[in-house]
Automatic annotation (TrEMBL):
Domain RNase H type-1, first and last residues per copy: 153-272
Protein name per Swiss-Prot or TrEMBL: RNase H type-1 domain-containing protein
UniProt feature coiled coil, ranges: none
InterPro entries recorded: RNase_H-like_dom_plant, RNase_H-like_EbsB-rel, RNaseH-like_sf, RNaseH_domain, RNaseH_sf
GO terms assigned for molecular function: nucleic acid binding; RNA-DNA hybrid ribonuclease activity
Any Pfam family matching the protein: RVT_3
């Protein structure tokens, strides 16, 4: 997603991702209109916390709101590109009804035929706006000590269709994102398998991108136990476990059980990669390339 030095649409400001997606008049109008249809947070409550503002906003939003936020931003970016390329854009109400119907179609994908026949299809989701209550204060994430990095990992597995994904993020003591990554997993038997695969890849990337000791944060007590108990693992994942343990010898690694809430960045990344309907998905952001474009790319692949 390439932005311009000065916004070509309004000419008022530098076209940062925050400006293009929330501040620029066209963007603001669509967001505010959708806020009367969906319980989106008020733009006044969204702060630009730096290049990762979008990631922060999504992490703090309720799961049910997150996908709608992404859809609105995706539409805003699409309309921005249409204008930049000199194309006419549809009226505001057309974009609003497009988003509503698209979201309902997307939700229906997860309903069974029986559920649809029973009338569980949402004809039009018009929840009353929750404004600032859509963003809930999060339980504090346990940041590592200085000169130590924290690796949050999570695996996601859907037993209904066998789809799976992994998500991981490496941060330092002042919350700087060193990298965040997600991957669709194609060979996965169950949730525990996804967790272990996420751990292995996360440690592999963390040791390659930081020289410091690693706090390995996971919300899966079973997986943490498997990699820390000093015995020969005879389970189906014995080989995977021994590969993970190898990192524990090469680098100081401190496994730490965290709550699901504290692990929700990795959880969110894992869910994204699990649910997309494409052949291959690997995503990556780091300090140099941190930008909301990766999330927009994901939602485009979603639709
Ligand atoms: Zn502008």
């Amino acid at each position: 997603m390439g932005t311009l030095a000065t916004c070509a649409l309004c000419g008022r400001d530098e076209e940062t991702s925050f400006h293009a997606l929330l501040v620029c008049p066209n963007a603001a109008r669509l967001w505010d209109s959708m806020q009367s249809v969906w319980p989106l947070p008020s733009r006044m409550d969204i702060t630009c916390t730096g290049t990762e503002w979008l990631l922060h906003m999504l992490v703090e939003a309720q799961e049910s709101i997150r996908s709608r936020i992404i859809m609105v931003l995706w539409r805003i970016w699409y309309l921005r590109n249409e204008i930049i390329h000199g194309k006419p854009i549809p009226p505001l109400d057309i974009s609003c009804s497009f988003l509503s119907s698209y979201y309902n179609s997307y939700k229906n994908i997860f309903l069974s035929v029986e559920e649809i026949l029973k009338g569980k299809t949402p004809v039009m989701e018009c929840a009353p706006p929750l404004a600032s209550s859509a963003i809930q204060p999060a339980r504090p994430w346990p940041a590592p000590a200085s000169n130590v990095v924290a690796l949050c990992v999570d695996g996601s597995y859907n037993p209904l269709d066998g789809s799976a994904g992994s998500g991981m993020i490496l941060r330092d003591d002042i919350w700087t994102v060193i990298f965040a990554s997600y991957r669709k997993l194609f060979h996965c038997n169950e949730a525990l398998d996804a967790e272990l695969q996420a751990m292995k890849e996360g440690l592999q990337l963390a040791t390659a991108h930081s020289p410091f000791p690693v706090v390995l944060q996971s919300d899966c007590a079973v997986a943490l136990k498997m990699i820390t108990i000093d015995s020969f693992d005879r389970s189906a994942y014995g080989h995977l476990v021994s590969e993970i343990r190898r990192f524990l010898f090469d680098r100081e690694v401190f496994p730490l059980k965290v709550s699901r809430e504290q692990n929700r960045v990795a959880h969110c990344l894992a869910n994204f990669s699990r649910d997309v309907e494409i052949v291959l998905l690997v995503g990556w952001i780091d300090r140099l390339h941190a930008s909301p474009c990766w999330l927009l790319k994901i939602v485009i692949l979603y639709l």
